[in-house]
Design goal:
Blueprint: H1 2-11, E1 15-17, E2 23-24, E3 30-31, E4 33-35, H2 44-61, E5 67-71, H3 76-86, E6 90-93, E7 106-107, E8 115-123, H4 127-138, E9 142-151, H5 155-163, E10 168-173, H6 174-183, H7 192-200, H8 206-213
Parallel strand pairs: 5-6, 5-8, 8-9, 9-10
Antiparallel strand pairs: 1-4, 2-3, 6-7
């Protein structure tokens, strides 16, 4: 599954590797990779692969799941499709409560004690997924864990998930992506160690110098 989804993401440029001309994140960090998993919704075949992968993750890892909750906004569509595949209720959690109406933050029915899985598109530092999980816990839900499309596997993200007692299972990951990207000619095999060095310490730009030597 990890290799299939990695291949899909590369094919439609939902994940785009550009090591020689790094992207700049909002934090100012230089990155050789850019992710926009919203693009998976526009490709019918890839969308099917992704949503069935997420559904299988939930079935295999969170068998007691009673409802699927998407992160806002990237996880909403995926949560809706996955909930349809699994025949489960669906909702989503806003970034902040509405300032009108009932001032809801959680949209959709979520009774106390409901066993829920959070659907997220991308795990980097895991901030949004943790925020959603904590909002659901405050509402009385039992958060079984997170199902996500892709994870960088960054230490900050894995540490934050562990700190909040959250399990995440991703359909694909950075290591699988680099392996497939090398095999299919998106990058050279000699570039992989430098690209892994970025993942291991994104704030340290020495990976760029190592890349020049690859």
């Amino acid at each position: 599954m990890e290799r299939l989804i990695a291949k899909d993401l590369l094919k439609i440029k939902a994940v785009f590797l550009r090591p020689e001309e790094p992207f700049t994140w909002a934090s100012g960090i230089k990155s050789p990779i850019y992710c926009d998993n919203r693009l998976t919704l526009s490709d019918v075949a890839v969308r099917s692969d992704v949503e069935h992968a997420l559904a299988k993750i939930i079935q295999d890892n969170y068998p007691g799941c009673e409802a699927v909750m998407g992160t806002s906004t990237a996880g909403i569509a995926h949560a809706a499709i996955v909930s349809e595949i699994l025949g489960l209720p669906m909702g989503y959690v806003r970034g902040s409560a509405k300032d009108h109406g009932r001032n809801n933050r959680i949209e959709g029915k979520c009774e106390p004690g409901t066993k829920v899985v959070v659907v997220e598109d991308l795990i980097s530092t895991a901030g949004s997924a943790v925020d959603v999980a904590e909002a659901l816990r405050e509402a009385g839900a039992e958060v079984l864990g997170i199902a996500s499309i892709f994870t960088y596997g960054m230490k900050k993200g894995t540490d934050r998930l562990a700190e909040h007692g959250l399990k995440n299972v991703s359909a694909s990951n950075y290591d699988a992506l680099l392996e497939v990207a090398s095999e299919e000619g998106y990058i050279g095999a000699a570039q992989i160690p430098a690209l892994k060095a970025f993942r291991d310490d994104p704030s340290n730009e020495s990976w760029m110098e190592a890349l020049k030597q690859a």
